[in-house]
Design goal:
- By secondary structure, the protein is an all-alpha fold.
- It is built from 5 helices and no strands.
- The chain has one domain.
- It has helices at about 10-40, 50-70, 75, 85-95, 100-120.
- Helix 1 packs antiparallel against helix 2 (about 50-70).
- It is flat and about 50 Å long.
Amino acid sequence: MNPTTALNSTPISSMVLVMSASLIGSFGAVFLKLGAERMKHGFRHILNLKLVAGIALFLGSSVPFVMGIRHGELSVLYPMVSLSYVFAMVWSKVFFKEHISAGKIAAVALILAGVVCIGVGGS
């Protein structure tokens, strides 16, 4: 396939599915962290609802991901998975009140720029 047709051969619906998978996976990370907090009270707390929810969200995120990659270019879609890092940073601020430094903002900007460049680079 000609590289200039990569974006054209990747439907928007596939991109939306992969971005949805990234969003779902980022919520999985939130729940894993919440569940891990319970483990401070001992390893016997490894099976807790929040940890199970995090695992379920991570596993569940693979469903829209697989649905998305079956009709598009993997080289366009897979970099969109890195959007989960962007979402995770937002959730870290919202749910855990973590500090967002200028360096983190710059890193997110680079991730977004990379996703855009890969997504439109073939056109």
